[in-house]
Amino acid sequence: MKKVRVGIVGFGQIGPVHLRSYQQFPEKVEVAAVVDLLDEKLVLAKESGVDQVMKDYQELLARDDVDAVSVCIPTHLHRELAEQAAAAGKHVFCEKPMAMTAADASAIEAACSKAGVKLQLGFVRRFDHEWLKFREIVQSKTLGDKVVWRSVAASQGAPTPWFFQRELGGGPFMDGAVHNYDFGHHLFGSVKQVTAHGTMLQPDRTVMDTGTAVIEYSTGDILQMMWSWGLQAGSTGSAAHDVLGSEGALLFTGAGKDPLDKEASNIGYLTINRPGREQEPHSYVKNDMFRDELESFIDCIREDKPTLVTAEHGKEALRVALAVLESAETGQTVQLT
Ligand SMILES: NC(=O)c1ccc[n+]([C@@H]2O[C@H](COP(=O)([O-])OP(=O)(O)OC[C@H]3O[C@@H](n4cnc5c(N)ncnc54)[C@H](O)[C@@H]3O)[C@@H](O)[C@H]2O)c1
Known about the structure:
With 337 residues, this protein is α/β, with parallel strands linked by helices. It folds into 2 domains: 4-123 and 290-308, NAD(P)-binding Rossmann-like Domain (Rossmann fold, 3-Layer(aba) Sandwich); 126-287 and 319-335, Dihydrodipicolinate Reductase, domain 2 (2-Layer Sandwich). 31% of the residues lie in helices and 26% in strands. The chain is built from 10 helices and 15 strands. The chain has helices spanning 15-22, 39-47, 57-61, 78-87, 102-115, 129-139, 172-175, 178-188, 289-302, 311-330; strands at residues 4-9, 29-35, 52-54, 68-71, 91-94, 119-121, 147-154, 191-199, 210-217, 222-228, 240-245, 248-254, 267-273, 280-285, 334-335. The strands form 2 sheets. Strands 14-13-12-11-7-10-9-8-15 form a 9-stranded mixed β-sheet. It has a 6-stranded parallel β-sheet with strand order 3-2-1-4-5-6, sandwiched between helices. A hairpin with a 6-residue loop joins strand 13 and strand 14 (280-285). Helix 4 (78-87) runs parallel beside helix 5 (102-115) and helix 8 (178-188) crosses helix 10. It is globular, with a radius of gyration of 20 Å. The mean pLDDT is 95. The structure holds nicotinamide-adenine-dinucleotide (NAD). The site of nicotinamide-adenine-dinucleotide (NAD) has 24 residues, from loops.
């Protein structure tokens, strides 16, 4: 079976992660070229083993020897690139969030469908063995019939300014939390309503960098997030991540922390706390989720299979993200079903 030749467009934070991931299964894929507007990023790509680098993605899309494109540029630019890549007959891996508007997301889906190319979205947590173990435990109802999933974090967040513009990146409750919205969909299904509040701790931002969002699902399960990307570089706030139910609590013990055997470095644990019992560790084999999601994309191209993370997933997570921003801006709960 022939190797898939991929071009990576955008070599900021996530582009190099795609390169490192593809480089781990060279029997299936070859990175044909890296595209970025900035010279220093192209130098870095060359130093990382890529022969062909360029500044204009049209040059990449015009090449017959490129089969697929990794879309790793800022979110508001995903549509233009993904549409043109699809029209040029390239399979598309589109980083999350899919786009900044529902119309852009639908246009990406339509372009890929019309061209008959694969489309996979970058919801990498769907490949994370830790989060998949968390899903298995929640769905087993060990914690109770319904749960509250809590996530608290505070840092400087994303490093480039476009992330903090309402129309370009949408801030933490669009860009970062979209992973949680997608995984919430994977866990609980459809969202009933969303309530959010927020503020901007840092100047020059047009969207909240700090706030809370409560996502209520039709099942009665709840995702509660209290996130900030409003701190300055070098400072972090408290973090918490757990799941509460009528029968007990699930703690994210940490991929590196093994409560039983400090030597077993490839095994991670989640821990369940239940009344009257010892803490119960639940093990999983640690994995490189980025490698696994990109290998899955390449396998789908080589074997002509449907991708596992689709436009439907991208559009649903975006719908929740847009509802969170709307709720914070209007002060109203937004109904989604
Ligand atoms: N899956 C994940 O966990 C994850 C992590 C980080 C970022 N992302 C997503 O990946 C996308 C990119 O984020 P990032 O953090 O790498 O951003 P970034 O700002 O670090 O890098 C973006 C890069 O794209 C380049 N670029 C911009 N316009 C371009 C164009 N027209 N042609 C070629 N290059 C261009 C910029 O020069 C920059 O180097 C975003 O959608 C983001 O949400 C996903």
